[in-house]
Structures are given as structure tokens and as C-alpha cells.
């Protein structure tokens, strides 16, 4: 269930932004390019998609995220005055109202507020801790409220990440294992999700952290149409279930800056088991491994790349399958038990607070590990701009455009894509 929860706390547009607030906001290394910011598409999706939320807030606050489907004309409504830091002796408040639009929800208003601070003000090496709140409401009736925190304690020997909330999403379900170009079911769903997730990590060696994770929540799903659905799907999609996931997480982090790295790498591995023995409605497990590396090509340019693998074992519910979430595709349109994806991005500072990025990616989902099919590959490419919103903390606003096999997507977010 960690997947879903991680999904809730980080799948939609909102906590993507919150995840960046959650990320350590230490200033970039001396001589390094100022960090841009991306995100992983925040759109209305199911708890598995909501996985976007939790996956970013909890395990991926380090990666950042994006908001899908926003139109360029709406960018004019956002200015740096929308994000206003209020400096304190040991901390900084943030408030960011963001108008967004996506094919799933239509126009939506997203609000993110947070407080960045140090648990050891006299230690300049201490990463920034965070407490944040986020809320969203869209014209199709989707809405959510979330709370989250990330704490660095005892000289950063301990890292505690957690969050919880409630989400009500209206979205379309496309089936499992869809192949681009093939007809697939498009069933309107409403998913209500409430839950929480907590990760407690301890430094076990220099730059290495490990510890237990727990996620629990209730997921209710209903079909939003009177039209007939494919045989067998009615009972699957109309459900009221409980997920309780226990797991372990391991991180090896040598990045020079967790918000917008220019050097180093991050290896993040997460294993999780849901079982009826501790109250879960389904018996299944998951394993996710992501590796990202960063190279400073020039004083103002960084080459970043990542590889992502995710496996589901056993009777995983449709809302917690592996979902393809790379830019250029609608999150949740392609889902199955196994996911593989790779992405390369070049980030270049252009002028003062303005930066740009270009990126390309390739991946697919499949029913079995490493069972690749030529017609299931999902290539994409795109570019974007980054606008630095703050001075004390390297907070950026990201605008991306990406094109894939199924069409194009716009993204607006706070934070790096990874």
C-alpha cells in the first residue's frame, strides 16, 4: 500500500509542489548552476495515480514532480508575487496559489503552503526540514487536502518523512496493459482515498540511509456512468478496500544538493508488502528501484539522467499497479505489473533567474518483468523553462511541454522532474 499512499501524497498536482517544499532546500554548491525545477505531472488520478502524490512526497520529494495539462495562456496568471517568502530567524514561510488545467479535471486551483527550517540552526551543513499543507479543487468536482513533513534530526543521522490526507478524484480508467494505438476502455471513475504513510530512516554508513516504512488507507471506487462496462470490470472497479503496507527503504545519496543537484547520484530502493494478516484487503508486494545521476557539464549546465524499474507481485489492485509517469503521457493510461523507463535531461541557466531544459525518455509497462514488446515502447521528448521564485531557498517554477505517441501534454509545477 505504500505505493498507493506514496501515490496519494504525491500523485496529483498539489503534493508535487508540496514535495518540493519537502525537499531539502539547502543552497546549491558553490560554483554550481542555480537549480531549476520540474515535476511530474499532477493530474487527477486514482490512488495508484494518487501514487503520484505519495510517491513524490514521501519517496520522491527528492525527485520533484510535474503538473499535467496546463495551457500556456494560464501561465500569465502566475507571477513570482504568488509565492511570497516571509523570513524568520530560523526559517521561511511559503504560500503558492497556482491555477492549473488538465484533461482529467479541467480548470483547477491549487494552493500550497509550507515552512522550511533547520532543526539545528547553528549547523550550516544541516539539510532543511519542512512542514507543508496543500489543497486543490477542480471544475469537475475533484478535490483534496494533504499535510506532510520531512525532518532531519540528530545531525541528519535520522530522516523522518510522513504525510496524510483525503482525496476525491474523478478520472478515466483505460484498462491494464494498454498498447498505444489500440482501442482501450475509457471508463469514468470516482475514487475516494484517505490514509497516511510514514518513513523512518537511519544513516547506516556515510550517505546511506535505511529503515522501515508503513502506509495505510481506505480506497473507495465507483463507476460514474450508466453505460455498460466490459464484462468482469464492474466488480473490480466498484470497490471499498483497505490497504496496509509494511516495507523497507534504502537510499544512497551523494548529491551536492537535494533540490536541484549538479553532481552526484541517488539510488532509492523501496520494498513493500500488503497482507491480510495485518488488515489489508489484498495480498501483494512491490519493489521499486530508481537510480539518478547528475554531471556538471559547465558552470551553468547540468546533464541529468535516471533509470526506473517497478515490480508488482501477487494480487495487486488496479489502483496500485505500476503506472507509467514520464512526461509526454497521461499518468494512469498505461499501467501493468512491471514498469521500465529511462530519461535524460539537460538543464541550462540562461539569464539571472531564468533557465531552460530539454529532455527525452523511453519506457513501457508489461505483465512480466523485462518482457518487452516493440509496439509497447513509449518514446517522448520535450523542453521547458524554469523561473527562480526565491532568493534564500532555491525554489523554481517549472513549465514543460512534451510530446509522445498519444499526443502532447503541458506541465506546470514546482520542483525538478528528478
General description of the model:
With 418 residues, the protein is mainly beta. Mean pLDDT is 79; it is low at 1-88. The relative contact order is 0.19. The protein has helices spanning 2-8, 13-22, 47-59, 233-237, and strands at residues 86-88, 91-102, 106-117, 129-138, 143-153, 158-173, 187-205, 208-223, 239-253, 264-274, 284-296, 301-314, 322-323, 335-336, 338-351, 354-366, 380-388, 396-404, 407-414. This is Surface antigen. It holds the Pfam family Omp85. Residues 26-45 are annotated as: Disordered. Residues 234-418 form the Bacterial surface antigen (D15) domain.
Features:
418 residues; globular; Porin; mainly beta; 17-stranded antiparallel sheet; 19 strands
Number of structural domains = 1
Mean pLDDT: 79
Largest sheet: 17 strands, antiparallel
CATH fold-level topology: Porin
What would you say about this model in short?
With 418 residues, the chain is mainly beta. It has four helices and 19 strands. The strands form two sheets. The protein has a 17-stranded antiparallel beta sheet. A two-stranded antiparallel ribbon has the order 13-14.
Secondary structure elements and their pairing?
Blueprint lengths: L1 H7 L4 H10 L24 H13 L26 E3 L2 E12 L3 E12 L11 E10 L4 E11 L4 E16 L13 E19 L2 E16 L9 H5 L1 E15 L10 E11 L9 E13 L4 E14 L7 E2 L11 E2 L1 E14 L2 E13 L13 E9 L7 E9 L2 E8 L4
Antiparallel strand pairs: 1-2, 2-3, 3-4, 4-5, 5-6, 6-7, 7-8, 8-9, 9-10, 10-11, 11-12, 12-15, 13-14, 15-16, 16-17, 17-18, 18-19
Amino acid at each position: 500500500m505504500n505505493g498507493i499512499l506514496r501515490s496519494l501524497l504525491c500523485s496529483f498536482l498539489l503534493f508535487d509542489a508540496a514535495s518540493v517544499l519537502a525537499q531539502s532546500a539547502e543552497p546549491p554548491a558553490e560554483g554550481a548552476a542555480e537549480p531549476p525545477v520540474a515535476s511530474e505531472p499532477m493530474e487527477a488520478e486514482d490512488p495508484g495515480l494518487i501514487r503520484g502524490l505519495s510517491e513524490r512526497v514521501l519517496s520522491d520529494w527528492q525527485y520533484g514532480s510535474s503538473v499535467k495539462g496546463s495551457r500556456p495562456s494560464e501561465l500569465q496568471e502566475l507571477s513570482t508575487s504568488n509565492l511570497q517568502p516571509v523570513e524568520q530567524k530560523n526559517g521561511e514561510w511559503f504560500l503558492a496559489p497556482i491555477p492549473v488545467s488538465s484533461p482529467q479535471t479541467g480548470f483547477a486551483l491549487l494552493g500550497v503552503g509550507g515552512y522550511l527550517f533547520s532543526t539545528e540552526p547553528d549547523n550550516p551543513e544541516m539539510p532543511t526540514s519542512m512542514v507543508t499543507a496543500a489543497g486543490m479543487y477542480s471544475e469537475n468536482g475533484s478535490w483534496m487536502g494533504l499535510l506532510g513533513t520531512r525532518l532531519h534530526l540528530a545531525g541528519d543521522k535520522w530522516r523522518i518523512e510522513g504525510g496524510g490526507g483525503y482525496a476525491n478524484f474523478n478520472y478515466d480508467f483505460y484498462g491494464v496493459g494498454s498498447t498505444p494505438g489500440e482501442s482501450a476502455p475509457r471508463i469514468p471513475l470516482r475514487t475516494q482515498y484517505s490514509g497516511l504513510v510514514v518513513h523512518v530512516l537511519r544513516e547506516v554508513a556515510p550517505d546511506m540511509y535505511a529503515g522501515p516504512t508503513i502506509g495505510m488507507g481506505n480506497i473507495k471506487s465507483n463507476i460514474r456512468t450508466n453505460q455498460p462496462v466490459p464484462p468482469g470490470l464492474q466488480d473490480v472497479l466498484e470497490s471499498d478496500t483497505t490497504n496496509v503496507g509494511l516495507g523497507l527503504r534504502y537510499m544512497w545519496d551523494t548529491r551536492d544538493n537535494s533540490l536541484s543537484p549538479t553532481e552526484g547520484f541517488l539510488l532509492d530502493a523501496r520494498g513493500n508488502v500488503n497482507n491480510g494478516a495485518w488488515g489489508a484487503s489484498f495480498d501483494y508486494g512491490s519493489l521499486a528501484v530508481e537510480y539518478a545521476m547528475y554531471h556538471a557539464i559547465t558552470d551553468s549546465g547540468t546533464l541529468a539522467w535516471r533509470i526506473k524499474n517497478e515490480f508488482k507481485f501477487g494480487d495487486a489492485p488496479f489502483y496500485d499497479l505500476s503506472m507509467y509517469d514520464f512526461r509526454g503521457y497521461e499518468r494512469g493510461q498505461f499501467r501493468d505489473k512491471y514498469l521500465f523507463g529511462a530519461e535524460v535531461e539537460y538543464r541550462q541557466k540562461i539569464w539571472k533567474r531564468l533557465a531552460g531544459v530539454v529532455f527525452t525518455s523511453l519506457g513501457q509497462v508489461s505483465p512480466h518483468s523485462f518482457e518487452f514488446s516493440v509496439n509497447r515502447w513509449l518514446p517522448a521528448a520535450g523542453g521547458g523553462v524554469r523561473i527562480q521564485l526565491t532568493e534564500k531557498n532555491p525554489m523554481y517554477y517549472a513549465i514543460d511541454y512534451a510530446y509522445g505517441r498519444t499526443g502532447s501534454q503541458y506541465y506546470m509545477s514546482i520542483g525538478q522532474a528528478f
